Amino acid sequence: MKKQLANKAIAVATITAMSAGLVACGGSGDAGNAGNQGDSATDSTANEGTTDQASNEATEAEEEGPKVITDENGNPIDLGGMEIVVRDWWSSEEQAEPSNDYEESLDEYREWIQETYNFKIKQVAISDWGTTPQDFVDYVTTGGDDNNYVFILRGDAAIVSAMNNGLMYDLATLDCLDFTQDKFTSNLIHEQYAKGDSIYAMSAGIAEPRTGVYFNKRLLTEAGIDPDSIYDMQADGTWTWDKFEELMAKCQRDTDNDGVNDVYGLTLNEGVMTTEAVFANGGSYVSKDADGKYVYNLEAPETQEALEWCVDMYNKFDNHDPEGAEWDYYKEEFVQGHAAFMVEDEYAGGPGAFLADMEDEVGFVMFPKGPKMDTYVNVWSNNPAAIPGCYDADRAWKIAFAYNLYTEAPEGYEDYNGFLSTARQGVFDERAVTETIAMMSEPEHGTVAYHDMIPNLKLGEELVWSIGPNADVAALTEAIADTWKAYIDEANK
After folding, report:
1. 3-class SS string, the chain
2. pTM for this structure?
């Protein structure tokens, strides 16, 4: 290991803190009864080269109580040298060297768990974004192979079908996973991919920040608006649809008096704003009731109000895309300073994203709250992790046990939010990082959507892509209502 574990005292404390969430058991074979926690074997070389103080701290930590999760004989759970691959579409084969204290501590912790429980684990790209859903289905339906995979997936009809047809292992049957842990409840993927008492996918860690509002500070200043006032409104709870409209109206101007606006109030991908506005008003397209059944929600007053408001905003501030323009024309329009506000996801301002080319300074706040909401919300959309349903119970349990350990934070970093570190490498100012982006990952400001869980429901082409300037919301709703209700009824069977 990079640092001998006086560092072990850190890892020991981490495991102790995790023990409630990692109560193991019941797996057959070598897994044993991991709910019985006793003394661990002492590593006689663990403290070589450390100071006496560090050695004493490690000894004291070992004497305090549970250090590792053990079987019925008091021995650490032994995964028998199992090699596990967390497969995604972005991780490189070679792990990068740590770039900060958090990453160094994480590396040390992960080395320690692999040594302690006798397994190896790595995360690497195998599929690509496009093929991942079908790759998972093909792998399971053909019986898998000798690899031990955790698949990182994305929302897709093929994955919903896989869940409904038993191709995903039911994680609720694996008692080494505790879905009341903060690392699961902070993103809610397990609730999104639940059906009845079963859970088919999970995500561990803080939810990724999603849709917000970027603003051009220069254009606001020229319109007589203090850019910081938007952060102040966000902070005191007065950042509302009405305020947003008021500011867009002030910024939208014909600066050379030729009858054509030179600065527009808004530019965006309308589909992104439309769905965010629905949830920002307490609405949804599909909800879920207390019995876990999907509920048709398109005609709910909150949803309809949001759709009508979006059409009004597009008519007033966004009806200006050149004829024949590409769908992502809005990006260049904002970068070039032709619009004061842009509704877009947080990653657009990250390192290497398209806003990196922008010369003007930008701010970023959460999407304003609608009249039916008393707080701000963004719709989380983390990548679900699944274990193939073709694995037997013992194999699935061991993989889940290892993945659960792998996704824990090292001691001292339990509240670490890596999205903030990444944001600081992008275009965001300090208030965007510490106020907006931090807020976006907090449980009270996040939710998940269920419309993607309904097979055959195509939100974009059946509704959202048609919500633009001059759209007739009532007619669009009437045209698809019976079809959507039928889709939902089928999904509830």
Report:
1. CCCCCCHHHHHHHHHHHHCCCCCCCCCCHHHCCCCCCCCCCCCCCCCCCCCHHHHHHHHHHHHHCCCCCECCCCCECCCCCEEEEEEECCCCCCCCCCCCHHHHHHHHHHHHHHHHHCEEEEEEECCCCCCHHHHHHHHHHCCCCCCEEEEECCCCHHHHHHHHCCCECCHHHCCCCCCCCHHHHCCCHHHHCEECCEECCECCCCCCCCEEEEEEHHHHHHCCCCCHHHHHHHHHCCCEHHHHHHHHHHHCECCCCCCCCCEEEEEECHHHHHHHHHHHCCCCCEEECCCCCEEECCCCHHHHHHHHHHHHHHHHHCCCCCCCCCCCHHHHHHHCCCEEEEEEEHHHHCCCCHHHHCCCCEEEEECCECCCCCCCCEECCCCCEECECCCCHHHHHHHHHHHHHHCCCCCCCCCCCHHHHHHCCCCCCHHHHHHHHHHHCCHHHEECCCHHHCCCCCHHHHCHHHCCCCCCHHHHHHHHHHHHHHHHHHHCC
2. 0.83
